[in-house]
Design brief:
The protein contains 13 helices and two strands, in the order αααααααββαααααα. It has 411 residues and is mainly alpha-helical. Among the domains are: 107 residues, no CATH class; 102 residues, no CATH class. Helix 3 runs antiparallel to helix 4, helix 6 crosses helix 12 and helix 12 crosses helix 13. The longest helix has 26 residues. The two termini are 28 Å apart. It binds zinc ion (ZN). The site of zinc ion has 8 residues, from loops. The site of zinc ion (ZN) has 8 residues, from loops.
Length: 411
């Protein structure tokens, strides 16, 4: 416990969702549980190495058996012991003696340590199994993003599905309503970050048109959601969600006609930004306007990415066609990050998600500038930083929000 700065499991308010842990079952003494978590984590880490390599390559993650990438030598069970095999073999293939990257045992060690920390912080079943799955998904997503600058939909939507499942049946990690809200608003926050970022960066130029379902439909949904949200609930219907309906109508019109009908980004994003201000001037609720904007944009972004994923259900990364960026429009952030933010929002809730994004932006600025100084990649993906922010905020988000509200004198 001392290692974790005096954090007490069970009693600490830093641990989320204290309302549900009473329902959990304690199976093992804590020390044994942590040893088990370390062993399980190293094994899962070994599997994650396979997922990280094979998913973007379009190869099955369960078959064929693992081979040396240099000589094709099929690895025996003795060569597959996490961390230990790498150390015993001196970091080299047994057959061809060529080096095996340090990253393999590092991913195994990282997964083991995080599984162990999770067991210390929340030694309760079945919640701990969900947390282990959360950790495993984030590690796979982060490393695949580093390698390929993409975030596989199967892992992102898998995380959303698992979070909603836990919320629906266990009330963990959130109650269901908070999970849905967090997911929609989380995706909306990053979709609008990408939308406004691109709009400003490209000096109010219209984004690339993509039919039937592209960023224009997300921006349309944001505008309608912002305008509807300011009116609040009318006749039992919350008008902030109206953006999703209008966005879907736009997309289905495009699909029906084979053309791309889309309003200019300057109209949708401009009016969307004005809506909360107008709401405030009219004595309506600017916060509800913002919430409608986030929910509608997020719902539309998640629906859109789901549509494209179902159209092409592979996670294989194809080389981008050369003619893709003819218009010279620079995207500030990919929609993989938007879906990842939706996944994190389902697990964290919206307030902790904002903590995660804040940590991600800071970590990205600091680590990114260090990497650039040492001649690293210029285009560093945001996914790994979101994963770091998500993990920290999962355990400490509520505590950080409370500390911050106290700090500015609101709590
Ligand atoms: Zn070899």
């Amino acid at each position: 416990m001392a290692l974790l700065g005096g954090l007490e499991p069970y009693t600490s308010q830093a641990i989320q969702c204290p309302s549900s842990y009473n329902s959990g079952v304690e199976l093992l003494p804590l020390s044994l549980l942590v040893v088990f978590a370390l062993l399980l984590g190293s094994l899962i880490g070994s599997f994650l190495n396979v997922v990280i390599y094979r998913l973007p390559a379009g190869i099955s993650v369960v078959w064929p058996r693992s081979r040396c990438p240099h000589c094709g030598h099929v690895l025996s069970p003795l060569e597959l012991v996490p961390i230990v095999s790498w150390v015993v073999q001196g970091g080299r293939c047994k057959n061809c003696k060529r080096p095996i990257p340090l990253r393999y045992p590092a991913v195994e060690g990282l997964t083991a340590v995080l599984f162990g920390v999770a067991a210390l912080l929340r030694p309760v079943f079945p919640e701990l199994v969900f947390i282990w799955a959360f950790i495993a998904l984030l590690i796979a997503l982060a490393f695949i993003d580093i390698d390929t600058k993409t975030l596989p939909n199967s892992l992102n939507y898998g995380g959303i599905f698992l979070g909603l499942l836990g919320a629906g049946f266990l009330g963990f990690p959130q109650n269901f309503q908070a999970a849905v809200d967090g997911g929609l608003m989380g995706a909306g926050l990053v979709a609008l970050f990408a939308g406004y970022g691109g709009w400003l960066y490209n000096r109010f130029k219209d984004g690339p048109r993509e039919g039937p379902f592209g960023v224009h439909q997300v921006h349309l949904a944001a505008m309608v959601g912002a305008l509807g949200g300011m009116l609040g609930t009318v006749g039992g219907t919350w008008l902030g969600g109206l953006g999703i309906v209008v966005g879907l109508l736009n997309a289905s019109l495009n699909a029906r006609t084979g053309k791309v009908f889309a309003l200019h980004d300057s109209l949708t994003l401009g009016l969307g930004a004005l809506a909360p201000i107008v709401a405030w001037l009219l004595g309506l609720s600017p916060l509800e306007s913002l919430r409608g904007m986030l929910v509608s944009a997020g719902g539309m972004a998640l629906a859109g990415m789901l549509y494209w994923w179902l159209r092409n259900p592979s996670d294989k990364v194809e080389p981008a066609p050369a003619e893709e960026n003819l218009e010279g429009y620079v995207s500030v952030m990919g929609y993989g990050d938007v879906v990842l933010a939706g996944f994190l929002g389902v697990w964290l809730g919206f307030s902790s998600l904002m903590v995660a994004v804040f940590i991600a932006v800071f970590a990205g600025a600091i680590i990114g500038s260090i990497l650039r100084r040492f001649g690293g990649d210029n285009q560093i993906p945001f996914g790994p930083y979101l994963a770091i922010g998500g993990l920290v905020a999962f355990f400490y988000g509520k505590a950080i929000v409370q500390w911050y509200l106290g700090y500015i004198g609101l709590a």
